[in-house]
Amino acid sequence: MSDRPVFPDLVAVVTGASSGIGEATAHRLAREPGAQLVLVARREERLQALAQALPCPATYVACDVTDDDAPARIRAHVEAHHHGRLTLLVNNAGASWRGTFAEGGYRLSALRAFDLFPMTHHVECVALLEKRRL
User: How far apart are the two ends of the chain, measured CA to CA in Å?
Assistant: First the structure.
């Protein structure tokens, strides 16, 4: 196996970073030389604890990615704290509810609609990723 970093000078946004796969992804990416992470999830206290525990610089945005202003808030954070540099987006945020569609249909369909238009296609994040290709 090569000693070459997988993601040299990585600046990554990881959504759903407060637990599960998102948290594990943040721990893995934090081992890359020169890595800087932007952790995104709803639970601010968990994001803060994770950011402090990682072996790399990490900032966070506490928000619900289904909120209309979430992509703009994340972009503004990346612009302010990482000079607009973004090399990787891990779009991992998720949610679950128990109940029938009749009980939670609207909420479930709202998340599904967001899933069909994920942050990887949202103009706020695409603009940052596109800047990397220039």
Answer: 31
